[in-house]
Amino acid sequence: MANQPWWASAIQWAVWFALMSLVMAWLARSRHRPRLPNQQNVLVYPRSILVIGVVCAGFFLALALLCLLFPGETGSPLISLFFLGFSLLGIPLIAEYVRVRHQLEPGGLRYQTLLGKHGFLSWNDVARIRYSPGGKWFRIDGLTGEVIRVSAMLTSLPEFARAVLESVPPERIEVKTLPILMSTAAGSPPSIWV
Q: pTM of the full predicted structure?
């Protein structure tokens, strides 16, 4: 690796960046797929999230098993455990795909979180809405303390943004979040890449 010319490393990083850009573009496009009319107000993760979760978990699980079965000169159970740990990174994606579901209803949002918390939040009971660029989600704080996170990866985000803009008083929407909601309502949700 030390004898490798500088341009070889630059090519490796360029290929990695190009591949990641393609995957992220695929993920972003998948949230825009046409939905059935009765599903327009349902916010769920697209199937691409499930695919990424299964591929991540499966790939690292396969590496863990291969390292355990064919240890080689430098293999050890510790390396298998290392890869097994990485395989667990796909589990939250699979769980999010299966569990998280929000539905726009007249007057509010019915929600179900990853950990099973569910309920209905009336738009009148929203204390504050803000967008987290780092988390890539809209955070809705309720007057009674509930916190709902609406991921930028969910489908039907334009419908969500329109409902918020129509029903939540503007003073309860963070100033920096208002243009993001307006852009999302117009069909251009926040980027999931950078």
A: 0.80
The CA-CA-CA angle for residues 169, 170, 172, to 5°, reads 75
Comparing CA positions, the residue from 113, 115, 178 lying closest to residue 142 is 113
Question: What Å distances lie between residue 186 and 16, 29, 39, 157, CA to CA?
Answer: 32, 16, 19, 10
CA 164: distance to chain centroid?
20
User: In the numeric block, which tokens belong to residue 164?
Assistant: 């918020």
* 10-residue mean pLDDT series, the chain (194 residues): 76 87 79 70 89 91 86 75 89 91 93 88 94 93 92 91 93 94 91 74
Beta-sheet pairing, 147-151 with 137-142 = antiparallel
Query: How many angstroms separate the CA atoms of 163 and 40, rounded?
Result: 12
H/E segment holding residue 140: strand 137-142
